[in-house]
Amino acid sequence: MAAAQGHSSDHSDGIRGTEKAAGDRVDPTTPAPPPEADPVPPAFRRAVEGLGAVRLRPEIEVDPTRPPQRLAPYAHALEAAVVDGEDDLADGRLVLLHDPAGHDAWKGTFRLVTLIRAELEPEMASDPLLPEVCWSWLTGALEARGLSYGEASGTVTMAGSHYFGGLAERRPATQIEIRASWTPKEGQAGVPDTGTHLAAWCDLLCQVAGLPPSVDPAPGAGTGTASGAGVVSLPQRRGPQHP
Could you give the count of Cα atoms lying within 13 Å of 88 in the half-sphere of its Cβ? Predict the structure, then answer.
């Protein structure tokens, strides 16, 4: 996993590049001491470690990625894809945010933020209820893992593409995009069960990709019930359609 990202501050005494009070000598040849990074809060460190302790389905490839810098004092990000051979069936990003001082909108000190994208089959794209169903995939994935959360919010967007000219032979394509965030319940020592939240998020990613649910035998990664239980998934498909 990538190192936890946090903010840093300059702990110098404010005299760098200036003279001290009268009677004190400043040696211009002495380099100033480097600024010390703020220590990473133990709760955030443990939350990040929890993300690396989860065993995921073999179809999912997960890698650390650069987190956003201004959403919270501390952030850690992962990107993932559901892969079938050389085809990516769905991809997404999950970001863990932490503000030790708390955040009024979060109603907590941690927040999970996600973006998931996948290409839809034409018959699915025409379903007017699909946005509501997609949102139920998110809440259903969390609840199927027995997770407690609050302040969930987000959007479900469908974007269609029609091709012309030299690309006219391509079939129309529709992409679905789920953007969401929620506040995970904090457990012992104020640390949320990030590993199970990651497992639930991967359940959602697989559902959007059209994979059938599977039983996750990994200890500590949820209740051990079928992933996505009680949630309607997309029909299974073998990858993006090509002309």
Answer: 11
pTM for this structure? 0.72
- Is the CB of residue 145 less than 8 Å from the CB of residue 198? no
Distance (Å, whole) CA 243 – CA 99: 48
Question: At CA 116, angle to CA 148 and CA 163, rounded to 5?
Answer: 155
What's the rounded Cα separation, in Å, for the pair 140 and 204? 9
Round to whole Å and give the CA distance between 77 and 212: 26
pLDDT digits (tens, 9 = 90+) for 151-180: 999 999 888 777 788 888 877 777 889 999
Q: At CA 181, angle to CA 228 and CA 59, rounded to 5?
A: 40
User: Tens of pLDDT along 87-117?
Assistant: 888 999 999 999 999 989 999 999 999 999 9
Neighbour-count burial for 33-67, b at 16+ CB within 10 Å, e otherwise:
eeeeeeebbebbbebbebbeebebbebbebebeeb
Separation between Cα atoms, residue 72 and residue 100, nearest integer Å:
9
- Residue whose pair of structure tokens reads 């051979």 in the numeric block: 85
- Asked if residues 72 and 49 have their Cβ atoms less than 8 Å apart, the reply is no
Taking the C-alpha atoms of residue 216 and residue 212, their distance in angstroms, rounded to an integer, is: 13
